[in-house]
Write a sequence for this structure.
């Protein structure tokens, strides 16, 4: 692995060396390293690109890293990763994709992650997207995440894309059975001429299911963001979504909330706010010795942290 | 030493401050006066948050009239807002570390920040990782705001009505914060207040009314002026109330 690849790995998965536990590192379309454990198996798909990650019932306090890195300009791939998580598990999954494109051709990674979470299991999923490089070729990513949560299971997602990706469509959808809950924290920063669309959709189909979605976006310069948040309440359930955005320069943000209730005991709330950085916030930090630019950076860093 | 020279400020055709001339060389100066007298405007002009329509401001012999807020902050002026600003995502720790100073190491900044937070009556371990958003009450935000300004320990600290929004019990610990700041720094504290306990410990009081300094001097003398200027108005309200009550009683 060369220095560029190592840096990408650090950016998307905070890895300086091979991780502890199960992992599969995909580099320029190939599996670069893999490790399985007694309770977590990783199997290459035979009908299409991608892997199956099989986590045995009762697996606790274990992690799986599956970073993808692309440093070859012009590489385009569509990868399917399926996670089969047994009952009564407690695991952390760290995914992420980094593209370094110094060439003239577009590089593109489309990843479809499907999660089947067993009853009473808890899953934490962290996904970070990162792009760099000075080439004319674009850096494109289209991640799709499909989640099915069984009874009384919980999933927490932290997804982020902080600059560097020219065009992206991020689609996340989840179906919740009775007693299941999902928490989604999605963060995105776009700059230059970048475009990003995020679709977050949760269907609560079982009594006692809950969802909490928090989306935060910052659109700088001439970038464009669109976020669509949908919650369907089809049972006695409760759902909350908050969409907060900061626009700067000539940035554009479109936020579309959509709540649908088909059960009288469904309680659904949506909050959305778009605005520039408040002048009084800048002033406060300037009275503490920061320049206007430093104050702006600190506010954005905090907003997306 | 702070010197204000013919400071005036107009907004929407109204004169908020009229030719203010002041030389502040005392350590603890309270600014008081009726609502709308221009107290907050005066403090904001000193910090550079608003620009005067005319006049000059001097800090230790240097003309700071055209200086930015950042430059004034780095020259040693701190400001506690009357209505603290909330930030989504930033934590109490972030701002207190910033207040603790860039020259200190991370550990020192953290320790100092915790100490000041405790002084305003907030247990550091409970608050240091709280977000500065609307999950904090107005009173909590206010005390954090005061802690941030005090933690900077600069040569001039400006407090815009620190008592507003603070309960009586917390107010006692705030007075101790001002006293400690007074003892530990050789700087000047300027504080807008209507609280007699603050006015009593001030070296000097500025009494502003209708954009003019009516009095600037020792506490006792200004308090006498306040007595004659404000209390009769309060008495007349009381008198009217008593008269109204008597009138009601007669009707019954």
């Amino acid at each position: 692995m060369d220095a560029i690849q190592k840096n990408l790995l650090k950016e998307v998965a905070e890895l300086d060396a091979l991780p502890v536990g199960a992992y599969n590192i995909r580099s320029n379309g190939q599996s670069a390293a893999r490790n399985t454990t007694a309770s977590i198996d990783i199997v290459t798909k035979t009908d299409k690109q991608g892997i199956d990650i099989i986590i045995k019932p009762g697996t606790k306090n274990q992690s799986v890293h599956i970073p993808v890195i692309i440093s070859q300009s012009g590489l385009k791939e569509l990868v399917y990763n399926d996670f089969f998580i047994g009952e009564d598990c407690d695991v952390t999954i760290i995914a992420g994709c980094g593209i370094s494109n110094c060439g003239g051709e577009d590089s593109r990674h489309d990843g479809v992650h499907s999660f089947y979470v067993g009853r009473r299991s808890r899953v934490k999923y962290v996904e970070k997207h990162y792009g760099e490089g000075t080439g004319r070729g674009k850096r494109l990513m289209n991640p799709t995440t499909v989640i099915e949560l069984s009874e009384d299971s919980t999933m927490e997602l932290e997804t982020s894309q902080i600059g560097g990706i020219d065009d992206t469509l991020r689609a996340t959808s989840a179906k919740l059975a009775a007693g299941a809950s999902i928490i989604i924290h999605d963060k995105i920063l776009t700059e230059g001429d970048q475009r990003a669309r995020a679709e977050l959709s949760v269907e609560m189909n079982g009594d006692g299911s809950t969802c909490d979605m928090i989306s935060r976006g910052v659109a700088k310069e001439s970038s464009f963001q669109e976020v669509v948040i949908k919650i369907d309440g089809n049972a006695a359930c409760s759902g909350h979504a908050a969409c907060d955005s900061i626009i700067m320069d000539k940035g554009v943000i479109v936020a579309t909330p959509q709540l649908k209730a088909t059960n009288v005991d469904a309680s659904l709330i949506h909050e959305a706010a778009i605005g520039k950085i408040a002048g009084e916030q800048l002033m406060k930090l300037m009275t503490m010795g920061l320049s206007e630019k430093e104050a702006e950076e600190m506010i954005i860093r905090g907003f997306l942290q | 030493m702070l010197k204000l020279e013919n400071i005036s400020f107009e907004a929407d055709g109204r004169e908020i401050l009229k030719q203010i001339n002041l030389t502040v060389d005392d350590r603890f100066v309270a600014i008081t006066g009726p609502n709308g007298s221009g107290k907050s405007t005066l403090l904001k002009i000193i910090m550079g948050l608003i620009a005067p329509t005319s006049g000059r401001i001097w800090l230790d012999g240097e003309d700071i009239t055209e200086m930015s807020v950042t430059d004034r902050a780095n020259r040693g002026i701190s400001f506690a807002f009357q209505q603290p600003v909330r930030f989504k995502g930033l934590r109490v720790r972030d701002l207190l570390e910033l207040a603790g100073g860039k020259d200190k190491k991370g550990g020192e900044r953290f320790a100092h920040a915790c100490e000041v937070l405790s002084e305003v009556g907030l247990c550091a371990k409970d608050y240091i990782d709280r977000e500065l958003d609307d999950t904090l009450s107005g009173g909590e935000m206010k005390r954090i705001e005061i802690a941030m300004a005090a933690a900077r320990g600069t040569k001039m600290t400006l407090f815009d009505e620190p008592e507003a929004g603070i309960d009586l019990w917390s107010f006692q610990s705030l007075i101790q914060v001002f006293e400690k700041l007074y003892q530990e720094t050789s700087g000047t504290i300027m504080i807008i207040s209507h609280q007699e306990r603050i006015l009593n410990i001030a070296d000097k009081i500025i009494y502003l009314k209708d954009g003019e300094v009516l009095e600037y001097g020792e506490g006792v003398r200004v308090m006498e002026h306040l007595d004659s200027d404000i209390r009769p108005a309060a008495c007349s309200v009381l008198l009217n109330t008593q008269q109204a009550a008597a009138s009601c009683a007669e009707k019954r």
Remarks:
- The helical segments of chain A are 3-13, 279-286, 292-303.
- The radius of gyration of chain A is 20 Å.
- The mean pLDDT of chain A is 93.
